[in-house]
Amino acid sequence: MGLAHQLMLISKISRSFHSSLSASKLAQFLTLTSCFRYRCSNITCFSFLYTCVFQFQDENCSSSSEGRQLNYSYLIIDEKTNLAAVVDPCEPKEIIKAAKTENVTLSGTILTTHHHEDHSGGNVELASFLRENVTSKDKVKVYGGSKKIPGLTTLVEHNTTFKLSLGEKKEGDDDVQSIEVTCLATPCHTGDSICYHLKDPRQGGPGCVFTGDTLFVAGCGRFFEGTAEEMDQALNQRLSSLPDETVTYVGHEYTKSNAAFAKSIEPKNEHLLSLIKVCDSSKEITTGKYTIGDEKKFNPFMRLEEPDVISATGLGSPSRVEVMTKLRELKNSFKA
């Protein structure tokens, strides 16, 4: 299974407060190598992985409905052992089906970004399947930031670290794949929001981060359980502390509507205008194609001190928190 292996996107309904309509199936493929090199050719720290992305689409939503039709789950696959971990398995049957199709075995590890059902709703079903069919009961681990996470076995908090070992060391084998995972607590969208920063220690490099509904491309999640101050800390302290080259894997494909809103804030931002061209070009999938450094250039929620951003709020001499608060209010009422 080489680097040229393709990413398979399967459309299914997102079961959550977001939507309850019927689903349609997409047939679209991306190549992992392209996803990384499209942005930065030296991002090779996950060269032994590919990610199988599940794209959930509400077939009755228009493309301008803030992207709620697009919901991501991820498989993180070790090409040497053909074992895979899962991020946010909202539709376990589709994940199990894809694992069989791709000839990989689910390792028993589930990383959950937050408790909303469209991210954690499949945890219990998938964990039960894994215990019965794949691995021993004690090897099934469900990570998350609170006891609200269905099926939780391992509670994590800010700066919790662990090894994601996708395989067991055999005699004479010194090269077992083991990914370093650092948990970043980013409460606001939910109180238990966790971002997972993954790195391969043998190869170095910035790695990638799974951000759930905290960070989207050119946007951020709603403040359902937190404050503007918490989102400022989540985006502009904790996520911003990662290397600029860190690749972002987000929870939803909201990029087109996010970029339209961002343009209303900074209409002359060249980095943003380039992003909009990508969004307009086709059915472009943006997860895995942008970095933390990119977000600092075009995401208004990470540009709180930029003069044009401040001016767009209509406030006099606002604090960072006031700018964040106003941006969220404007985004909530924005019509593309």
Automatic annotation (TrEMBL):
Pfam families: HAGH_C, Lactamase_B
Protein name: hydroxyacylglutathione hydrolase
Keywords: Hydrolase, Metal-binding, Zinc
Family: Belongs to the metallo-beta-lactamase superfamily. Glyoxalase II family.
InterPro entries xref list: Clx_II_MBL, HAGH_C, Metallo-B-lactamas, RibonucZ/Hydroxyglut_hydro
Cofactor(s) of this protein: Zn(2+)
Enzyme Commission designation: 3.1.2.6
UniProt-listed CDD domains: hydroxyacylglutathione_hydrolase_MBL-fold
Metallo-beta-lactamase domain location: 70-252
Record GO terms (molecular function): hydroxyacylglutathione hydrolase activity; metal ion binding
UniProt catalytic activity: an S-(2-hydroxyacyl)glutathione + H2O = a 2-hydroxy carboxylate + glutathione + H(+)
Domain of life: Eukaryota
Pathway connected to this protein: Secondary metabolite metabolism; methylglyoxal degradation; (R)-lactate from methylglyoxal: step 2/2
Gene3D superfamilies: Ribonuclease Z/Hydroxyacylglutathione hydrolase-like
